[in-house]
Amino acid sequence: MAQLPTVDDVAQRAGVSRQTVNKEMSWLVSEKIIAWHYRKIHILDFPRLFALIDAQSPLSGPVRDAVLRQPEEFFSAAD
Questions:
Q1: Does the pLDDT value for residue 58 go beyond 60?
Q2: pTM given for the model
Q3: For the chain, what is the radius of gyration of the CA atoms?
């Protein structure tokens, strides 16, 4: 399996700061939607993650858009 991008990589692709990426990822963790450990992300709640991908999402647009373009680079399903 390919190694996932770093926070810097995600920030650069999305055109936002590292702080924005960390804030959004931390929110997803706090909501128990994902588990995030170093460069591994496990989706814990697919339905809620997909529900967040609408226009009312608390996720910032650029980060959400970057994830949607190539989700396999950002997430792996929990085993």
A1: no
A2: 0.61
A3: 11
